[in-house]
Amino acid sequence: MKIRAATKTDLGNVFRLEQGAFGEHGYPDFFIRQAMDLWPGTLLVAESEGGLVGYALGGMGEAREQGWILSLAVDERQRGLGIGKALLQRLCRDLTDAGCTELRLTVHPDNPARGLYQSLGFVEESREPDYFGPGEPRQRLLRRG
Ligand SMILES: CC(C)(COP(=O)(O)OP(=O)(O)OC[C@H]1O[C@@H](n2cnc3c(N)ncnc32)[C@H](O)[C@@H]1OP(=O)(O)O)[C@@H](O)C(=O)NCCC(=O)NCCS
């Protein structure tokens, strides 16, 4: 398994991974295309012999030191093999190398992925009950680097 920056030809498969993981809460394909223009170095894909098995998107906030993990998704059939963790570790490293001293993300309080984030040093910063609209709570996690 190899992790690399996405290219334009990956975008269809990145979108399929996003849809498979998040369904109607996923980013639309045109957002992913524009994210590649905004943050080309931190749109990462995990590739195995059979094709793309996961992806991660990071971006920078208004201040360059504010890094955001915007998406992390692994193909359902390939979960539990360490791919998500490898993608997240690489994305955190790349954002830190780009000058981000604070890394943030949001996660549903019931999402078991919280354990993955905590194991990599993320702690709860705040909680919003209606972050994505009524009944859509999210915790904001922060890691200082
Ligand atoms: C979250 C996600 C990316 C993790 O990818 P993955 O490749 O399955 O994760 P890994 O195999 O690298 O596991 C990393 C660690 O997190 C834990 N973990 C990850 N997902 C888990 C889950 N659904 N349930 C329980 N534990 C989980 C693993 O036990 C592992 O712990 P360890 O390092 O102590 O062994 C994947 O489950 C996914 O795509 N989920 C749907 C999308 C999503 O919720 N993304 C996060 C949004 S904030």
What can you tell me about this protein's structure?
This protein has one domain: Gcn5-related N-acetyltransferase (GNAT) (Aminopeptidase). It has a seven-stranded mixed beta sheet, sandwiched between helices. The chain has four helices and seven strands. The protein has 145 residues and is α+β, with helices and mostly antiparallel strands. The model has no long low-confidence stretch (mean pLDDT 97). Coenzyme A binds next to strand 4, helix 3 and helix 4.
Task: Give the H and E element order.
Answer: EHHEEEHEHEE
The CATH homologous superfamily: Gcn5-related N-acetyltransferase (GNAT)
Report the CATH topology name. Aminopeptidase
Number of helices: 4
Structural class: alpha+beta
CATH class: Alpha Beta
pLDDT below 50 for ≥5 consecutive residues: which ranges?
A: none
Biggest pleated-sheet summary: 7 strands, mixed
Q: Could you tell me the mean pLDDT?
A: 97
Main β-sheet, spatial strand arrangement: 1-2-3-4-5-7-6
